[in-house]
Design a protein that fits this description.
Layout: H1 2-9, H2 19-25, H3 30-58, H4 61-77, H5 84-97, H6 99-112, H7 116-147, H8 149-170, H9 183-194, H10 197-225, H11 233-239, H12 244-279, H13 285-313, H14 318-369
């Protein structure tokens, strides 16, 4: 589960490490650069509910493998991009396949396992997705310095193909899956989910979470590539090593969930994330790095708690519920890329920080008002 999460997110945010280079190569604006990140995120938001419904009818493993195979195609085509617009198109197509991995994997875990095993496997899946987010940025940043970003994307495409072959061999076939090809039934389930407090609260919280993460880790690159830091793509890639804290912290969040429940854990994690965002305003580079580490740790705990919250509390139409969550989650990420670009262009990093804090306050309100406190054993 951890490695599936890694392959799913290897491509999603990789472009962040080379944003300063793309602005120079394509004579692009900050908003255009931000939307290259947001293009993939937008496609994921659009496709998540539909691929969830389709997976409920077709199956789990075949979807995960097929999505990984498709993901390799636009990843390779990015290397041929003649303009920032074409790069955005290929990035959008990348996002079409990601929900076939993410949404379906969460449904697979919810069906094949019960109780404590669900929470533990979810934490490993989130840890893997965190590792993939780091690896994509880290590898592409250093590949650009070695062979250029275009050739680097060919390497990334080859890695995705290897991931598809690995999942084909290693992932056990579903044992508990029951096909539901009835479209009318899926629409009815969709209506039930849209009126379900668990699902709606999770979607809103997810939107705030990814808004913060995308807005922070996209535009901090432009901030650190500018004076007085003037970091290279390789140095920016190294900054993303703070992501690795999430690989360690996310499994530990299972203990917090069992002891304090989802609602309390999320509230504390959001406050921690807010403190991290404020720390990025510190002038020395080491202060910025510590701030990013603290901010991302809070986000990862919130994400792990939220998807476990859905898996535990939603028993019917799990794949569709996961799809709705990811639609909200990535819609928030798209807004983070767009509004973050506008904000950065007008007020640089200091104004962007205040935008992120505003969204995190909204997350705190959602967790405090909307989240039903589950019992510790349910968490």
């Amino acid at each position: 589960m951890g490695l599936i999460g890694m392959f799913a997110f290897l491509q999603v945010y990789s472009v962040q490490a080379i944003l300063p280079v793309l602005i120079t190569d394509f004579a692009a604006t900050e908003v255009q650069a931000g939307m290259v990140v947001g293009a993939t995120v937008l496609a994921i938001a659009i496709m998540s509910p539909f691929l969830g419904m389709l997976s409920d009818a077709v199956g789990r493993k075949v979807f995960i493998v097929g999505a990984l195979l498709f993901l390799a195609i636009p990843t390779a085509l990015i290397a041929q991009s003649p303009s920032i617009g074409w790069m955005g198109i290929w990035r959008f197509l990348q996002g079409f396949s990601v929900p076939g991995i993410t949404v379906v994997t969460i449904a697979y875990i919810g069906e094949e396992f019960e109780g404590r095993a669900v929470t533990e496997l979810m934490s490993f899946y989130v840890s893997g997705s965190v590792l993939g987010g780091f690896m994509g940025r880290f590898l592409l940043g250093h590949l650009h310095e070695l062979i250029g970003w275009r050739a680097g994307y060919y390497v990334m495409a080859a890695m995705t193909l290897l991931g598809a072959l690995w999942v084909t061999k290693m992932l056990p076939a579903s044992r508990q899956f029951v096909a539901n090809p009835n479209f009318r039934s899926a629409i009815q389930t969709l209506g039930e989910h849209l009126a379900n407090r668990y699902v709606v609260t999770s979607c809103l919280l997810g939107a705030c979470v990814l808004f913060s993460l995308v807005g922070c880790f996209t535009f901090i690159n432009l901030h650190l590539a500018d004076t007085p830091y003037e970091l290279s793509t390789g140095a920016l890639a190294n900054i993303f090593a703070v992501y690795l804290l999430g690989v360690i912290i996310t499994p530990l969040s299972t203990t917090l969930l069992r002891r304090f429940g989802s609602a309390r854990t999320v509230r504390v994690a959001v406050v921690v994330s807010m403190l991290g965002v404020l720390l990025t305003l510190v002038a020395p580079l080491w202060g910025v790095v510590i701030g990013l580490a603290v901010m991302s740790s809070g986000v990862f705990i919130t994400q792990s708690a939220t998807i476990s919250y859905i898996a535990v509390n939603v028993k019917k139409g799990r794949s569709l519920a996961s799809g709705l969550y990811y639609m909200g989650y990535y819609a928030g990420g798209t807004l983070g890329a767009w509004l973050g670009g506008i904000t950065y262009a007008r007020g640089q990093w200091s104004l962007t920080v205040w935008l992120l804090l505003f969204v995190q306050i909204l997350a705190l309100l959602v967790a405090s008002i909307g989240m039903i406190k589950t019992k510790s054993h349910a968490a």
